[in-house]
Input
Amino acid sequence: MNLDLRFEMADILPLLPIPQPPYGKTAYNIPCPYCDRAEGRGRHLNINLKKNVFCCHKCGSFSGGVFDLYSYYEGVPRDKVYKHLKTRLEGGDPGESHRDKRQDQRKRIAPPPAVPQAPLADIDTRDRVYRALLEKLSLAQDHYANLLGRGLDNSAITRLQYRTTPTGGLHALTQELIDEGHQLRGVPGFYRDDNGRWTLASFWRGIMIPCRDRFGRIQRIHIRLDKEMKKGGKFLPLSSTDMLDGACAENWCHLVGTNREYILLIEGYMKADIVNHFTGLTVLAIPGVTSLQHLETTLKELLGLGLKHVMTCFD
Output
């Protein structure tokens, strides 16, 4: 049994010498003991009470679960955390069940209500906002060289609208979009900070990859990270889940090429773009082999447009 599941973030946070979650939030940021302490400013360590995990959005060096967080701040070896918490929270009384004690603890340390989330913006709104965002960004030289090394040429890179993630000036960037009349509420990746200002959830450097529907509209932005995260892999969505007025980026399918009777089904948006570039074939991509939520709906739409054969090309 995974002992981490016996306790949650709501149990341990009042015991730690760190800022406590603001009322009304199930996720919040505090200074990262690695990168923020070194710089003397910033709050990039995100603690998620709903998912019982934490991760620094900036350096990615500090992440884990309930026991990891407790172990670091209390200086307790990780393999001793369960016993330490059981004694500290439950008093070590064998006559009272863990469940009864834990329920009592919940009454004293109740998690705050969820952060208000915005309803997902429609596809046309998302497309307009993402296109306007990408127009304001550029592609760094190292990312350009990386894409050339994958076989894409300058024309393809321009057409695909790949960009480098912005890591500074985010408030100014979002304000430009607002001044141009764009509605950011409900567009995954955008949210309001503690001061009520709109900003972008862009915490890691990487290549931004537009995910398009069969009409070429941008549904979401995926990011190929420069540095693989400890947990989460090499790719992450531009999303603002659990942030004020934020929205979740769903695992939409990415279609490259015209509607045909024969298509390839691939894992990875960038991989689909590259395969289409080399072969001219129509490619349908999902972000991961377990990300199948929208695949059935997309295939049914394509069947209605004449699709007859699908070749699966997963690794």
In short: The chain is about 30% helix and 20% strand. The longest helix spans residues 123-135.
